[in-house]
Design brief:
Elements: E1 9-11, E2 17-22, E3 28-32, E4 37-39, H1 48-59, H2 65-85, H3 94-103, H4 120-140, E5 147-148, E6 153-163, E7 169-177, H5 194-213, H6 219-242, H7 246-249, H8 254-261, E8 267-271, E9 278-282, H9 285-305, H10 307-310, H11 327-341, H12 350-368, H13 373-382, H14 384-394, H15 403-413, H16 420-442, H17 447-469
Parallel strand pairs: 5-6
Antiparallel strand pairs: 1-4, 2-3, 6-7, 8-9
Helix pairs in contact: 1-2, 2-4, 5-6, 5-11, 5-16, 6-9, 6-12, 8-9, 9-17, 12-15, 13-14, 16-17
Length: 472
């Protein structure tokens, strides 16, 4: 069988359950395991070793479903290495493992368009997960000292201290091997800039315009281009307005948008990927109007044309086939927009989250008149309601992870003295400007298209008036 060129694991359905134990009456009790990753060898055959290791981690409740997927991805590298060498994992020698680690950092040719090489930190993470996998295999096979100072693979177990979200200091053990590189210094991404966001929006509009102007474009494909343009602009708008992760954007539902529209001070429900929770984030009526324009004028006609094949569903963002868009597809779409824009600075989807949280803190600092960073942190720690509000909006479980954003917010606020109302008003104006750019592109579509565009702008201005009326 031909080897697999893509990922070696596949997640099971969300309703999947694993057998847990058998009662005295010979009844099997199960435990939920939705999203559990099932690993196969590159030739497609079932990999008992990897799945046993993941099952052990799952049964010991060491890792969540999302973390198990990351482990499956990491040990896949070792499985490919073993498959190419035609050796079993427990037949690896110390020199084999050294070759494996060296192979994790391929060199890119100068001037090539290959993906950037893995960072040393990523290489270490893959190697340590692989060592942990080999250690688990050796325990199941009753092989003593497979890993160790005098073992078949010369590795040692070390300890490190880490602070938990609750503030406790815990000791964590990990494997180390002499071939592992020195970790990279920790680099934190900055929030994405306004100019980069404008470039991304401009790229979406210009790409659609080129396709619409093409004489080879079929009439049936024209509406797909218009839908893709509106959806991709909404992806950028949602990332900026909600601070959600790219995978969380895919889970937003229309019913939650409608609930938010009925609120005087709208809060949009956003599922949280980490921890399986959800949060409600503040959003403007003008931003909700942008979402409804996409739903009513682009998404709804597309689903009506394909209703017989896919049926109705509540997910906001859809593919050109009308099906709910996957998180991986969203990531690829954003990556393509980023490359086509030619932005010189770094601009990834997660930087929108940094921007959202930083802007949120700027607003809170101005609203409560905090004097410095220590004053802000003290309020977070001392006032339970204030702490819960911030953590619900950002989706963080630990206040320690917010320190970076507090620092950025005070740096930003040092450069201007806008009031909270001015910040909100500026956000409304930016939202309206984004929509007007899209509608101006539609004005070239004839009298009927121009009339529809002007009606949509009028509805957006009404929503913006609702936001601005609260400030007076």
């Amino acid at each position: 069988m031909e080897p697999r060129k893509h990922q070696l694991y596949k997640r099971v359905s969300p309703n999947f359950c694993l057998p847990h134990y058998v009662t005295e009456r010979n009844e099997v009790r199960t435990t939920p395991a939705g999203g559990f990753p099932v690993v196969r060898w590159p030739d497609g055959s079932y990999c008992f070793e990897a799945n046993q290791h993941l099952l052990d981690l799952r049964m010991r409740r060491v890792l969540s479903s999302g973390s198990l997927v990351m482990k499956a991805s990491q040990i896949s590298h070792l499985l490919r290495f073993c498959w190419r060498r035609r050796i079993s994992p427990l037949s690896l020698t110390d020199s084999n493992f050294t070759d494996f680690v060296k192979g994790l950092t391929p060199k890119c040719k100068p001037g090539s368009f290959q993906r950037r090489p893995r960072s040393d930190t990523t290489v270490n993470s893959i190697a340590r997960s692989s060592l942990d996998f080999l250690h688990g295999l050796s325990l199941h096979a009753s092989i003593e000292g497979f890993l160790g100072p005098n073992g078949q693979i010369l590795a040692e177990q070390r300890q490190m201290k880490r602070r938990t979200p609750s503030g406790r200091i815990v000791s964590i053990s990990y494997w180390h091997h002499s071939s592992l590189p020195t970790p990279d210094p920790k680099v934190r991404r900055l929030p994405i800039s306004s100019s980069a966001i404008d470039q991304l929006r401009g790229t979406v509009i210009s790409i659609a315009r080129k396709r619409l102007d093409s004489p080879k474009l079929r009439s049936t494909s024209r509406y797909q281009v218009l839908h893709t343009r509106a959806r991709n602009l909404l992806i950028v708008d949602l990332l900026e307005a909600t601070g959600a992760r790219i995978g969380e954007i895919a889970l937003i539902k229309i019913s939650d948008v409608r609930k938010a529209e009925r609120m005087e001070y709208p809060l949009l429900r956003v599922p949280t990927l980490k921890g399986g929770r959800e949060r409600r984030v503040p959003i403007l009526h003008a931003e909700l109007r942008l979402i409804r324009e996409y739903v009513d004028f682009y998404r709804a006609p597309l689903l009506r044309s394909r209703a017989a094949k896919i049926g109705e569903h509540d997910y906001l963002l859809v593919s050109r086939f009308g099906t709910p868009i996957l998180a991986a597809t969203l990531s690829n779409v954003f990556g393509a927009i980023r490359r086509d824009s030619g932005i010189s600075e770094q601009a990834c989807a997660h930087m929108f989250r940094h921007r959202f949280i930083t802007k949120l803190f700027v607003r809170l600092i101005q609203e409560h008149n905090f004097k410095n960073q220590d004053d802000f942190r003290r309020r977070l720690l001392d006032t339970e309601s204030f702490k819960l509000k911030v953590m619900e909006w950002t989706g963080h479980r630990s206040l320690l992870s917010l320190n970076h954003y507090i620092h950025l917010a005070f740096e930003e606020i040092a450069g201007f003295t806008e009031t909270t109302d001015a910040v909100t008003a500026s956000k409304v104006v930016q939202t309206v400007r984004s929509k007007v750019q899209l509608e101006l592109a539609a004005l070239a579509g004839g009298a009927e298209a121009s009339k529809e565009a002007l009606n949509r702008i009028s509805r957006l201005l009404e929503a913006a008036d609702r936001d601005l009326a609260k400030l007076s």
